[in-house]
Specification:
3 domains; 4-stranded antiparallel beta sheet; globular
């Protein structure tokens, strides 16, 4: 019944997604967040979902809360977590259409946020609508938490979770996104890596100087380069003392799942135009690294003249942005202290270290009953699904698990090569359709899941 409703009403799903895309909502620029939150409320209410805007203080992006109470099963609740904010659209010149056009071409809808995360959000809203319009009820209680700061580190999501803990109480959580691989198999992810994002900066002199003075004045860019070389080796292993001390090893059950995960090395290399993986990883080592290896990544480096042509300048300052991906049991604050101690011991104590964001890692146990429920629904909707121990990315899953004490699982519609965070981001309409049906099946099966 719900499947037929979804097929018939795909034009409405596409139209509402285009409306969301056409409303810019860039958290990094504080652009359009209030407007987009109100639009999400409007779309939810049109679908029959009771929706409101939650706030915790001035100048903090609003969070949207949605709820539908079940008449037939009021004792079980599933929460959908999503976000309405998007990444900045730059570089503009690499887009084929305007970044917020919502342009449809064939099976794809283009625009910033089409996949991450407005496409995912619309599938969940439309799944609930399908139940309400066909039966007048939902199989269990449904709740939505849609935040506006995910793309800048979910800065206040834990504050929202704590303040509205009772309102958000639930038995299970569907995470904000889920990848679909190149063979159209949804990847069901049971966790997220953590993150430590820092800036290392150094000021060597009071102003930029002529580069001929490089024989006398230390170049802060070189100092940072030398410091960076002490952080990791060429194979990606982090060299900071005790960095891996608390890190959880994989369980036997997790290793079995990792060994069974498919990974197409050739198509991945082709998509990104690369010839080799870090450390020449092959086979199972690739899969283990993706789901469970810490990383040390240079996200940006700024110093001196960066314009066209030549300018012989010796910069006075240099700054590098680094993100460290963390795995379960790694505490971001403890890792920050280890980083600072490492720099001091290596003779770089003059380098300033500023923490931008920290997030602990989280994993749902493979044995949790909700895992089986989600996988059955995905298999029925897509034909086959892939179980993954953890996503390679980061989100505030740890906060949800800690405060709401419910299992979190990622499953969704985002094609693995949909160019999220890049120009020409797109959502595939066929995957939006399948995922909406999958969400209906998850809700129905969860309502019947034994305690």
């Amino acid at each position: 019944m719900q499947d037929q409703f979804i097929d018939k009403n795909m034009p409405s799903l596409i139209s509402d997604l285009q409306k969301l895309i056409r409303q810019p909502s860039i958290s990094a620029k504080n652009l359009g967040l209030e407007e987009c939150a109100r639009l999400v409320v409007q779309i939810m209410r049109k679908s029959g979902i009771k929706a409101e805007i939650l706030r915790i203080g001035k100048n903090i992006p609003p969070t949207v809360y949605g709820e539908v109470r079940s008449v037939q099963n009021p004792n079980k609740t599933i929460l959908f977590y999503n976000h309405y904010d998007v990444q900045p659209e730059e570089p503009l010149e690499l887009w084929d259409d305007k970044p917020f056009s919502g342009k449809r071409r064939g099976n794809k809808i283009y625009g910033r946020g089409s996949a991450d995360d407005k496409g995912e959000l619309i599938t969940r809203i439309k799944a609930v609508e399908a139940f309400l319009k066909t039966t007048g009820d939902v199989p269990c209680n449904i709740k939505f938490l849609v935040e506006g700061e995910e793309e800048v580190g979910s800065i206040h999501v834990e504050d929202y979770l704590r303040r509205y803990r009772n309102k958000l109480s639930c038995n299970a959580i569907i995470w904000e996104f889920g990848y679909v691989d190149e063979k159209d198999r949804p990847i069901i992810s049971l966790g997220m890596k953590g993150l430590l994002y820092v800036e290392l900066s150094l000021q060597e002199s009071i102003r930029d100087a002529h580069s001929s003075l490089a024989v006398l004045i230390e170049n802060p860019a070189w100092r940072l380069v030398e410091a960076l070389k002490t952080l990791r080796d060429k194979n990606g292993k982090i060299l900071i003392k005790d960095w891996y001390k608390e890190a959880d090893n994989f369980t036997y059950e997790e290793l079995k799942v990792i060994a069974s995960e498919p990974f197409d090395e050739k198509s991945f290399k082709k998509e990104y135009g690369i010839r080799r993986f870090v450390g020449n990883k092959k086979g199972a080592e690739i899969r283990k690294a993706l789901v469970g290896a810490p990383t040390c990544n240079i996200a940006g480096f700024t110093s001196g003249y960066e314009g066209p042509g030549a300018k012989t300048v010796l910069p006075s300052t240099a700054l590098v942005k680094i993100d460290f991906r963390l795995i379960p049991k790694m505490n971001p604050l403890k890792q920050l202290r280890r980083l600072k101690q490492h720099l001091k011991e290596k003779g770089f104590g003059d380098i300033q270290v500023k923490m931008i964001h920290g997030e602990a890692a989280s994993r749902t146990k493979i044995s949790d009953k909700f895992v089986k429920t989600v996988r059955q629904a995905a298999n029925e909707s897509f034909g086959r699904s892939i179980l993954s121990v953890s996503s390679a990315g980061t989100g505030p899953m740890y906060s949800f698990s800690k405060i709401l004490k419910a299992p979190c699982i990622s499953v969704g519609s985002t094609y693995v090569f949909s160019r999220i965070h890049s120009p020409n981001e797109f959502a595939r309409i066929d995957l939006l359709r399948k995922t909406t049906k999958c969400m209906c099946k998850i809700i129905k099966k969860f309502s019947n899941q034994l305690p």
